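User: Teach me something about this protein's shape.
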Amino acid sequence: MPQQGLKITRLGDVLTVKIDRAEKRNALSRQLLADIGAAFRENAGDASIKFAILTGAGGKSFAAGGDLRDLSSIQGAEAAETMARDAKHALQAIRDFPAPVIAGLNGDALGGGAELAVACDMRVAASHARIGFIQGRLAISSAWGGGVDLMRLVGPSRALRLLARSEMMDTQNARAIGLIDDAAVDTETLEQALDRFCEPMRRQAPQVMRAFKALSIEGRNSGRRALDDIETSQFGGIWAHPDHDAAVKAILNKTNRT
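Assistant: First, the predicted structure itself:
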């Protein structure tokens, strides 16, 4: 059953999971993350699914990171690490989904939203969409496994640059380094770009797609646990640092004034 803030639909052999909080820039609360993970786990046994699409409502944000009003109640390193592990568990359901998962970036994927995007197997973006690992602007590090995914996608050196500079990348630059796979061109909509990109997949048999994904899962998860543990252990102390509290308060105060 669809959860609040999430729409789950099925059209033929394609599963679509849509974050439906456009008025909140599709910000990711702990409950919403858990619901996203549950949506993929609950559909994992359906052998007729050829691929899945994860996208967001509206045209501004795919996901504007974590929901600060929800996450600001988390106090201390231990609680932060628990949140990070729960979020990793949710995103791992996407990584382990037995058919390919394509992120349809309808708008900006920022911070935790960027981590959600790179948990997917492929990314197709609207022409105006940007992607940015901007966690450093909140005086925190990546926490949901996105740092590990980013390193593997673009290489450790380039990933370090993106993280350290909190870079926002447009579709042209993101595609050039392999961070996204395709983007809408000219007057093409995201839906048209997704149809074009996914057309070859529609011609594949579901069992063949699952065989391909099984190979990808094995390669992606090889040695992952140690890297995830490093990311989580670093995150807890950083979250509890006063610099993070100050950064969150500044953003929330700014939001309250607008």
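Now, about its shape. The mean pLDDT is 93. The chain has eleven helices and ten strands. If you'd like, I can walk through any region in more detail.
User: That's plenty for now, thanks!
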